[in-house]
Protein backbone atom coordinates (compact mmCIF):
# COMPACT_ATOMS: atom_id res chain seq x y z
CA UNK A 1 0.00 0.00 0.00
CA UNK A 2 1.57 3.26 -1.16
CA UNK A 3 0.79 6.94 -0.73
CA UNK A 4 1.44 8.75 -4.01
CA UNK A 5 0.64 12.48 -3.85
CA UNK A 6 0.68 14.45 -0.59
CA UNK A 7 3.24 12.43 1.36
CA UNK A 8 4.61 9.79 -1.05
CA UNK A 9 5.86 6.64 0.63
CA UNK A 10 5.13 3.07 1.61
CA UNK A 11 2.37 2.52 4.15
CA UNK A 12 2.44 -1.29 4.15
CA UNK A 13 4.70 -3.81 2.42
CA UNK A 14 3.85 -7.51 2.60
CA UNK A 15 6.13 -10.06 1.01
CA UNK A 16 5.19 -13.50 -0.27
CA UNK A 17 6.87 -14.92 2.85
CA UNK A 18 4.24 -13.15 5.05
CA UNK A 19 6.76 -10.65 6.44
CA UNK A 20 5.41 -7.13 6.65
CA UNK A 21 6.64 -3.58 7.16
CA UNK A 22 4.21 -0.91 8.36
CA UNK A 23 4.93 2.82 8.23
CA UNK A 24 5.47 4.24 11.76
CA UNK A 25 2.68 6.77 11.10
CA UNK A 26 0.21 3.87 10.74
CA UNK A 27 1.78 1.37 13.16
CA UNK A 28 -1.17 1.21 15.59
CA UNK A 29 -3.88 2.18 13.07
CA UNK A 30 -3.47 -0.43 10.34
CA UNK A 31 -4.70 -4.02 10.13
CA UNK A 32 -4.46 -6.42 7.23
CA UNK A 33 -5.49 -9.97 6.49
CA UNK A 34 -5.16 -12.32 3.53
CA UNK A 35 -8.26 -13.36 1.61
CA UNK A 36 -7.42 -15.78 -1.16
CA UNK A 37 -4.83 -14.18 -3.42
CA UNK A 38 -5.51 -10.68 -2.07
CA UNK A 39 -5.18 -8.58 1.07
CA UNK A 40 -7.79 -6.69 3.03
CA UNK A 41 -6.28 -3.55 4.54
CA UNK A 42 -8.13 -1.52 7.18
CA UNK A 43 -7.00 1.92 8.37
CA UNK A 44 -8.39 3.12 11.72
CA UNK A 45 -8.66 6.57 13.35
CA UNK A 46 -7.96 8.50 10.16
CA UNK A 47 -6.83 12.10 10.52
CA UNK A 48 -6.76 15.04 8.11
CA UNK A 49 -3.06 14.49 7.48
CA UNK A 50 -3.90 10.99 6.17
CA UNK A 51 -5.66 12.48 3.12
CA UNK A 52 -3.84 11.24 0.02
CA UNK A 53 -4.07 8.96 -2.99
CA UNK A 54 -3.52 5.37 -1.79
CA UNK A 55 -2.43 2.70 -4.25
CA UNK A 56 -2.46 -1.04 -3.70
CA UNK A 57 0.42 -2.22 -5.86
CA UNK A 58 1.77 -5.61 -6.76
CA UNK A 59 5.36 -6.04 -7.85
CA UNK A 60 5.70 -7.68 -11.23
CA UNK A 61 8.56 -10.19 -11.26
CA UNK A 62 11.65 -9.07 -13.24
CA UNK A 63 10.08 -5.67 -14.04
CA UNK A 64 10.49 -2.16 -12.59
CA UNK A 65 6.77 -1.52 -13.25
CA UNK A 66 3.99 -1.93 -10.74
CA UNK A 67 0.50 -3.20 -11.37
CA UNK A 68 -1.68 -0.82 -9.33
CA UNK A 69 -5.13 0.66 -8.71
CA UNK A 70 -5.56 3.74 -6.54
CA UNK A 71 -8.13 5.23 -4.21
CA UNK A 72 -8.32 8.88 -3.20
CA UNK A 73 -8.93 9.24 0.54
CA UNK A 74 -10.07 12.63 1.83
CA UNK A 75 -10.43 12.93 5.60
CA UNK A 76 -12.40 15.85 7.02
CA UNK A 77 -12.65 16.90 10.65
CA UNK A 78 -15.33 14.54 11.90
CA UNK A 79 -14.93 14.96 15.66
CA UNK A 80 -15.92 18.63 15.73
CA UNK A 81 -18.95 18.02 13.56
CA UNK A 82 -20.01 15.07 15.74
CA UNK A 83 -19.66 17.11 18.95
CA UNK A 84 -21.65 20.01 17.49
CA UNK A 85 -24.33 17.61 16.29
CA UNK A 86 -24.64 15.97 19.70
CA UNK A 87 -25.12 19.36 21.40
CA UNK A 88 -27.87 20.15 18.89
CA UNK A 89 -29.53 16.85 19.79
CA UNK A 90 -29.36 17.57 23.55
CA UNK A 91 -30.75 21.08 23.02
CA UNK A 92 -33.65 19.63 21.04
CA UNK A 93 -34.39 17.11 23.82
CA UNK A 94 -34.40 19.90 26.45
CA UNK A 95 -36.76 22.07 24.35
CA UNK A 96 -39.15 19.15 23.81
CA UNK A 97 -39.10 18.34 27.55
CA UNK A 98 -39.84 21.97 28.47
CA UNK A 99 -42.72 22.17 25.98
CA UNK A 100 -44.16 18.92 27.36
CA UNK A 101 -43.96 20.28 30.94
CA UNK A 102 -45.66 23.52 29.85
CA UNK A 103 -48.44 21.52 28.18
CA UNK A 104 -49.00 19.42 31.31
CA UNK A 105 -49.06 22.50 33.56
CA UNK A 106 -51.50 24.28 31.26
CA UNK A 107 -53.77 21.26 31.18
CA UNK A 108 -53.75 20.90 34.97
CA UNK A 109 -54.46 24.61 35.39
CA UNK A 110 -57.62 24.42 33.25
CA UNK A 111 -58.95 21.14 34.61
CA UNK A 112 -60.46 20.92 38.09
CA UNK A 113 -58.20 18.16 39.35
CA UNK A 114 -59.73 18.02 42.83
CA UNK A 115 -63.01 16.61 41.57
CA UNK A 116 -61.23 13.63 39.98
CA UNK A 117 -59.52 12.66 43.24
CA UNK A 118 -62.41 13.24 45.68
CA UNK A 119 -64.39 10.24 46.87
CA UNK A 120 -67.76 10.29 45.27
CA UNK A 121 -70.70 10.08 47.68
CA UNK A 122 -72.94 7.24 46.70
CA UNK A 123 -76.30 8.38 45.33
CA UNK A 124 -78.56 6.00 47.28
CA UNK A 125 -82.26 6.25 47.98
CA UNK A 126 -83.60 4.04 50.78
CA UNK A 127 -87.28 3.27 50.90
CA UNK A 128 -88.84 1.25 53.64
CA UNK A 129 -91.19 -1.24 52.01
CA UNK A 130 -92.03 -3.28 55.12
CA UNK A 131 -95.61 -4.18 55.96
CA UNK A 132 -95.70 -1.92 58.97
CA UNK A 133 -94.78 1.19 57.05
CA UNK A 134 -97.35 0.42 54.32
CA UNK A 135 -100.08 -0.20 56.91
CA UNK A 136 -99.51 3.11 58.61
CA UNK A 137 -99.98 4.95 55.32
CA UNK A 138 -103.16 3.04 54.58
CA UNK A 139 -104.67 3.87 57.94
CA UNK A 140 -104.26 7.56 57.43
UniProtKB/TrEMBL annotation:
Transmembrane feature ranges: 89-111
Gene Ontology annotations of biological process type: adaptive immune response
Molecular function GO labels: signaling receptor activity
A single Gene Ontology CC term: membrane
Domain of life the protein comes from: Eukaryota
Keywords, comma-separated and alphabetical: Membrane, Transmembrane, Transmembrane helix
PANTHER family: CD7 (PTHR15343), T-CELL ANTIGEN CD7 (PTHR15343:SF0)
Name of the protein in question: CD7 protein
Lineage: Eukaryota, Metazoa, Chordata, Craniata, Vertebrata
Amino acid sequence: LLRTHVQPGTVLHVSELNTSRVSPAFASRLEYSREGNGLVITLHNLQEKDSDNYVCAEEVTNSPLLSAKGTMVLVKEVERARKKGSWDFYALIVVVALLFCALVCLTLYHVDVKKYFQKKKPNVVYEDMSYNSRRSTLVR
